[in-house]
Amino acid sequence: MGKHVRTDDGRLLLAEEWGNPAGTPVLLLHGTPGSRLGTALPDLPERRPDLRFFAYDRPGYGGSDRHPGRRVADAAGDAAAVADALGIDRFAVVGRSGGAPHALACAALLPERVRAAAALVSIAPRDAAGLDWFAGMTPFNVREFGLAAEAPELLDADLAARAAAIRKDPERLVEDLRAELSDHDLPIVSDPAVRATLLRSYREALGATHHGWTDDSLAFTRPWGFDVSAVTAPVLLWHGLDDAFSPPAHTRWLAGRIPGATLELVPDAGHFAAQYALPAVLEWLRGQGSQEGGGR
User: Fold this and answer.
1) Which of 29, 51, 77, 291 is the most exposed place for a label (fewest CB within 10 A)?
2) CA separation, residue 280 to residues 18, 236, 287 (Å)
3) Contacts for 27 with CB less than 8 Å, ≥ 6 apart
4) CA-CA distance, 5 to 260, in Å (whole number)?
């Protein structure tokens, strides 16, 4: 069962926690589109019984109120509100795909609370100097981010229609993605555990509205509201080299700007390989001293 958390500005966020209540807290941030229910495969608590996991639906997804005009930076305040409501002081944070920039925001803007962060298959800021931002990106993402930058009203209409179709048949999004998946991603998305987790997340994310999807896309293509070079916590940047949804060049760019970041580029791995990478990422976090103590 989820728990509603009220933010300082009066919005409600739907949060979830699972795992060991006395374990070390780890915030998991979902992809785009996504929800708190799609942050990890179901066997993770058994594999890591020492951890307490928590997550929340970003504004406009699932059970969380919309926050029009939100920036990537706003995730830090939302994460802090959720952690406060759950009695959590310090925590590690992991973001996958659309959750990755938000994880970096938490690391940059909550330096006293975030012990370490991992950004898996992240994109870079749209204004990243020297980066050909669209190079190597799938046609769907080029179109979506192009509309976000140039015609937000058309993006909103497009995603509203897509979300309505997915609401009727959640498998629609998975099937639509297949044409753009790498040969390395296809077997992962066909894995019953991965597929079930994705479908559960999409159902929850888009069950009421498409607004979270729109607002994520807009936030990614506008100024993020923080400088990635301000991150002082240990950071792992993980990326599959055959990823066309979030091209690896984005993570290479981030690695050149985040002081001391650990860069892991994985050959023969695509975008959805990040689903399988989480246990190893959590082990890396433990090595950064992110598992000292629990709760408050």
Assistant:
1) 77
2) 19, 11, 11
3) 54, 55, 79, 82, 83, 91, 92, 93, 94, 103, 106
4) 34
Strands (E), the chain: 3-6, 12-19, 24-29, 51-56, 91-96, 114-120, 235-240, 262-266
- The residue assigned the tokens 């497009």 is 158
Structure tokens at 21: 């209540």
Residues pairing with 16 in the sheet: 55
Residue range 220-237, pLDDT digits in tens: 999 999 999 999 999 999
Burial 143-154 (b: 16+ CB within 10 A, else e): ebbebbbeeeee
Confidence of residue 144 (pLDDT cuts 50, 70, 90): very high
Q: How far apart are CA 94 and CA 100, in angstroms?
A: 7
Statement: residue 168 has pLDDT above 90 = no
pLDDT, tens digit, 9 for 90 and up, residues 88-135:
999 999 999 999 999 999 999 999 999 999 999 999 999 999 999 999
- Find out whether 235 and 263 touch, Cβ atoms under 8 Å: no
Tell me the per-residue pLDDT of 252-271, one tens digit each, with 9 for 90 and over.
999 999 999 999 999 999 99
What is the SS3 assignment for 9? Answer: coil
Tokens of 179: 């044409």
Q: How far apart are CA 67 and CA 277, in angstroms?
A: 31
Coil, helix or strand at residue 244: coil
24-29 β-sheet, strand order: 3-6, 12-19, 51-56, 24-29, 91-96, 114-120, 235-240, 262-266
Within 13 A of 253's CA, how many CA atoms are on the CB side?
Answer: 20
What values do phi and psi take at 64, rounded to 5?
-100, 140
